[in-house]
Design brief:
There is one protein chain. The protein has 181 residues and is of the alpha+beta class. The chain has a single domain, classed as HIT-like (HIT family, subunit A, 2-Layer Sandwich). The chain has helices at residues 20-28, 45-51, 90-111, 149-153, 162-173, 176-180; strands spanning 6-7, 16-17, 53-56, 60-64, 74-78, 115-119, 136-141. Strand 3 and strand 4 (60-64) form a beta hairpin. Helix 3 packs across helix 5. The longest helix has 22 residues, at 90-111.
Length: 181
C-alpha cells in the first residue's frame, strides 16, 4: 500500500488514513528516566536552547515539541518521572495547571492563534510517545491550519522554524513561575 494514502478497508470497517511518520517516532521512544526528554537536569542557556526548554524549575519543565503539529506546540511536564496524573502531589497538580494556563496566555500573546488544543495522552495506547512521563500538549490553532500534507506526503507545513519559535517564546517564559506563584 502506498505511504500516506487513504485506504478503503473493503467493507470490513471504516476507511483508514495512514500517518507512517508517527509510527517511526513512537517506535524510537524508549522508556525510563535515562531516555526521557522530560527528565532534564539543570541546563545552561546553550543546552536549554538545543533541547528547546523554555522553562524549568524544581517541579516542572516547559519545552517546545521537536516534532510539532503546529507552530508553537509546547509540552508541560512534571519533573518527577510519573506516568499518570493521580500519581502527582496536590502541589504538583496545582503548579502544572498554572503552567498550562500561563503557557496558553503566553502563546496567545506571542502568536495570536484563534484557539488551542490542550491535552494529555496517558499511556502508549492513547498515543503518548513518552508514556512513562506524563505531559500536556498545548497546540496553537488557526482558522484553516489543517491540511492533508502529513497524511499524503508525510510532511508537516510549519511557517516558523523551531529555532525561531524558541527565540520568540523564550523571553516570554522567563520568570513564569514567579509570576504565577
Amino acid at each position: 500500500m502506498p505511504r500516506g494514502r487513504r485506504h478503503d478497508s473493503g467493507g470490513d470497517g471504516p476507511p483508514q488514513l495512514w500517518a507512517p511518520w508517527r509510527y517511526a517516532y513512537i517506535r524510537r521512544a524508549r522508556s525510563g528516566p535515562e531516555a526521557c526528554i522530560f527528565c532534564v537536569k539543570e541546563l545552561g542557556a546553550v543546552e536549554r536552547r538545543s533541547r528547546l526548554v523554555l522553562h524549568q524549575d524544581a517541579e516542572a519543565v516547559v519545552m517546545l515539541n521537536r516534532y510539532p503539529y503546529n507552530n508553537g506546540h509546547i509540552m508541560v511536564a512534571p519533573r518527577r518521572h510519573l506516568g499518570s496524573p493521580e500519581l502527582l502531589s496536590a502541589k504538583e497538580r496545582a503548579i502544572l495547571a498554572e503552567l498550562v494556563s500561563s503557557s496558553v496566555e503566553r502563546l496567545r500573546k506571542a502568536l495570536t492563534p484563534a484557539g488551542f488544543n490542550v491535552g494529555a495522552n496517558i499511556g502508549r495506547t492513547a498515543g503518548a510517545g513518552f508514556a512513562d512521563h506524563l505531559h500536556w500538549h498545548i497546540v496553537p490553532r488557526w482558522d484553516g491550519d489543517t491540511n492533508f500534507m502529513p497524511v499524503l506526503a508525510s510532511t508537516r507545513v510549519l511557517s516558523q522554524h523551531l529555532k525561531e519559535s524558541f527565540r520568540t517564546l523564550a523571553p516570554l517564559f522567563k520568570g513564569i513561575r514567579t509570576q504565577i506563584s
